[in-house]
């Protein structure tokens, strides 16, 4: 039975059930209605929490300085300011970094208003001091209470149900991307194909298919979808998309258009109007010397500080490696760095001194058969101490010398071997546009457990979307990845 007949059968059975049991169907609470109720309840809790935050902060200021103006006005003006910056919209119900930015925006706006009011109207300089203290306290408490609410209620919030529309191959790619990144708060509940699927396994064999574009509305009603993600496809022209948008909005369903570009950070995308037509502008990756200079300086400062603080540990580990098995304490290997320039990378030795000569005997155990990497789980060439060092990435610490020398960065793609780069295509070679890193996206996303193509995708994503905040996030995630030790062998 093809997809259209299946969707028709499902829609028909739903209509029969509705006719046979009208009272039963009338009393059914849909997932969309449950979410609206949750959002309403959560919104009330947020408003109460925000008022309490402002009242607490202003009361502390009142106790310290004995002025009643801030204590009287701040609990009233603070929720109003949050409303103005849209901190109570559907997408800002206490979630994510965007919520913190809106809270900061509200505090700055009220602070500016306090300065103008004090200077032009009241003529009281002391009031500005009290207002700044009260706003700082209100913003901090608001962020903390919203985080607490997110911890208590976020788990109870059902993921948003998503229907995806597009070519079968694009739908499979989209489903695999969501699954691989563990998209928070989203759950695919169905798909509508714009073409017949090609032979081969689907990314998610459990994802039900409800026919083609003509079945989108019935699929939305059947699944209770709250979001419809439409992927680029020539079969959906401008008129079809407009009609689909009208129909979905009439159902209370949000319409999202998937971009043609993958692995592009949202910070690089802006919407611009060109000749009256909205266009998505993709900002070029930040690779200029001026943008990278702070990273270069910070890398070397942190590497120098790390070597200074870790010198006793490095000496102890060097002695242990030297006497745990025959061979030197350090392992030196030629790697390829920025713009294809080779350099010598330092690590603590974790294998037998003749490990390279034994590699051919273990070729059949290589887990990474699709790429140039050679990875063997429970590699017999690894020493007992070496397995411990690898599990907690202690063998990588001497690479701080490479960072200090300018050959590597704290964060970046994995430094490849020279022979690996011989088979690089034009796309993979983009990994060499930045310095390799001691840690990176692939290290905090699974390390050696990742297939070659996924490791390359993550490295390219880092190269194209680099920012100082991304570096900071990777460094924070590195701590957890090292502690878990997953994928380290």
UniProtKB/TrEMBL annotation:
It is found in: Membrane. The chain crosses the membrane at residues 43-64, 70-89, 103-122, 128-149, 301-323. Belongs to the bacterial sugar transferase family. It comes from Kitasatospora kazusensis. Residues 295-482 form the Bacterial sugar transferase domain. Its main location: membrane. This is Sugar transferase. InterPro entries: Bact_transf (IPR003362), EPS_sugar_tfrase (IPR017475). It is a multi-pass membrane protein. The keyword Coiled coil does not apply. Keywords: Membrane, Transferase, Transmembrane, Transmembrane helix.
């Amino acid at each position: 039975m093809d997809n259209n007949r299946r969707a028709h059968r499902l829609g028909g059975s739903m209509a029969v059930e509705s006719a046979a049991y009208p009272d039963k169907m009338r009393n059914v609470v849909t997932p969309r209605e449950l979410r609206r109720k949750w959002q309403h309840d959560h919104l009330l809790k947020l408003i109460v929490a925000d008022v309490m935050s402002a009242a607490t902060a202003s009361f502390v200021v009142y106790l310290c300085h004995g002025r009643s103006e801030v204590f009287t006005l701040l609990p009233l003006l603070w929720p109003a300011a949050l409303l103005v910056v849209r901190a109570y919209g559907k997408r800002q119900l206490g979630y994510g970094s965007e919520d913190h930015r809106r809270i900061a925006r509200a505090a700055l706006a009220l602070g500016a208003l306090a300065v103008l009011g004090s200077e032009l109207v009241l003529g009281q300089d002391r009031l500005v001091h009290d207002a700044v203290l009260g706003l700082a306290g209100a913003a901090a408490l608001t962020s903390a209470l919203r985080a607490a609410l997110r911890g208590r209620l976020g788990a109870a919030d059902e993921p948003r149900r998503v229907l995806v529309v597009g070519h079968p191959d694009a739908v499979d790619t989209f489903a695999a991307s969501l699954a691989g990144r563990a998209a928070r708060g989203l759950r695919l509940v169905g798909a509508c194909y714009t073409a017949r699927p090609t032979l081969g396994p689907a990314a998610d064999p459990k994802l039900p298919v409800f026919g083609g574009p003509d079945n989108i509305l019935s699929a939305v009603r059947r699944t209770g979808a709250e979001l419809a993600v439409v992927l680029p496809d020539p079969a959906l022209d401008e008129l079809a998309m407009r009609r689909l948008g009208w129909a979905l909005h009439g159902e209370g369903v949000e319409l999202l258009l998937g971009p043609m570009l993958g692995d592009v950070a949202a910070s690089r995308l802006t919407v611009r109007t060109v000749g009256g037509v909205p266009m998505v502008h993709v900002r070029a990756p930040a690779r200029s010397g001026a943008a990278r200079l702070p990273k270069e300086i910070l890398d070397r400062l942190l590497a120098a500080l790390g070597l200074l603080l870790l010198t006793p540990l490095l000496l102890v580990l060097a002695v242990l490696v030297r006497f745990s098995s025959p061979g030197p304490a350090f392992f030196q290997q030629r790697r390829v760095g920025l713009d294809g320039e080779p350099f010598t990378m330092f690590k603590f030795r974790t294998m037998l001194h003749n490990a390279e000569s034994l590699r051919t005997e273990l070729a059949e155990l290589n887990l990474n058969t699709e790429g140039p990497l050679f990875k063997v789980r429970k590699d017999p060439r690894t020493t007992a101490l070496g397995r411990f060092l690898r599990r907690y990435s202690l063998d990588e610490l001497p690479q701080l010398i490479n960072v200090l020398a300018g050959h590597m960065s704290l964060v970046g793609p994995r430094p490849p071997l020279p022979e690996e780069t011989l088979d690089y295509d034009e796309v993979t070679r983009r990994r060499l546009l930045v310095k390799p890193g001691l840690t990176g996206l692939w290290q905090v996303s699974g390390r050696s457990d990742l297939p070659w193509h996924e490791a390359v995708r993550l490295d390219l994503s880092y190269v194209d979307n680099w920012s100082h905040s991304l570096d900071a996030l990777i460094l924070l995630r590195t701590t957890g990845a090292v502690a878990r030790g997953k994928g380290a062998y």
